[in-house]
Amino acid sequence: MKTLLALEGVNAFYGAAHILHGLSLHVSEGEKVALIGRNGVGKTTVVNTILGLASLKGGHVKIADRLLPRPRSYMAAQRGVAVVPQGRCIVANLTVEENLLLGAATGRKGHWTVPRVYELFPILRERAHTPGTALSGGQQQMLAVGRALMANPALILLDEPTEGLAPIIVDQLGVIFNQVAAQGTALLLIEQNMTLVARVAERYCAMAKGAVVAEGRVDDTGLDGLHRHVMV
Ligand SMILES: Nc1ncnc2c1ncn2[C@@H]1O[C@H](COP(=O)(O)OP(=O)(O)OP(=O)(O)O)[C@@H](O)[C@H]1O
Ligand SMILES: [Mg+2]
Question: Residue 210 CA: which ligand 1 atom is closest?
Fold first, then answer.
């Protein structure tokens, strides 16, 4: 199986603050991996390092087997890694459809088009011409997922996509994530909701203090085993 994303011995900083300490993580084609850990352990910093928003000062980041000595956000997108950022980052003065089209900026072609995203999320078609930030929280999250799909990625990084959402919406998103994966896209799901992790992911990596400290198969570990990595 081809490795889509590889972080090896990564050290990453915000200014002088040393956040990731020799972190290693791999995601292969078609895999569904969860990245879990308590608040502040550095999960978002993993995403930020891949996007060049935290500085990489040791170790390697590889996307689709290409080494990125100085990662930048456009590089990830061009090489097939799309991000659904924590907090969604919907652009306020663009409509729903314009927000979706932003995701297509890399020009990568594939299964996902605006009509196909609308099939997946019919509510986005109904609201196509309203400002993106006029949507409810759950709908904005769907828009953020749709925007990532528009890049036709081989891998999507989802950073706490269910944070603050009602349980019924979380369940719907779980179904969607599995549909997206079934269509061939690999997922790296950063999540605090272990029930959702167990529904979606096959493998997990647990972080503590800026490094991956445990990994395994979700089925072997079970919900209690997963919870142990996120309990405060
Ligand atoms: N821009 C920044 N400058 C300096 N320190 C930062 C910055 N962003 C985050 N940090 C610090 O880096 C550490 C890791 O933060 P990060 O956001 O990666 O954690 P997280 O695991 O994503 O947490 P959460 O579950 O709350 O989203 C924290 O101690 C945080 O305070
Ligand atoms: Mg975070």
Answer: 14
Q: Does a structural domain hold residue 152?
A: yes
Q: Is the full-model pTM beyond 0.85?
A: yes
Compute, in angstroms, the gap from residue 45 CA to the centroid of ligand 1.
Answer: 6
Count of other CB atoms within 10 angstroms of residue 72: 13
- Residue 210 Cα to ligand 1 midpoint, Å, equals 10
Helix (H, G, I), strand (E, B) or coil at 33: strand
- Shortest-distance atom of ligand 1 to CA 45: 18
> The tokens 């900026």 sit on which residue?
105
Structural domain that includes position 111: 31-49+78-227
Q: How many domains does the chain have?
A: 1
How far apart CA 201 and CA 219 sit, in angstroms, is 9
Give me the CATH number covering residue 139. Answer: 3.40.50.300
- Are β-strands 32-36 and 203-208 bridged in parallel, bridged antiparallel, or unpaired? parallel
pLDDT digits (tens, 9 = 90+) for 168-215: 999 999 999 999 999 999 999 999 999 999 999 999 999 999 999 999
CA of 126 to the centre of ligand 2 (A): 31
Q: Residue 47 carries which side chain, given as an amino acid letter?
A: V
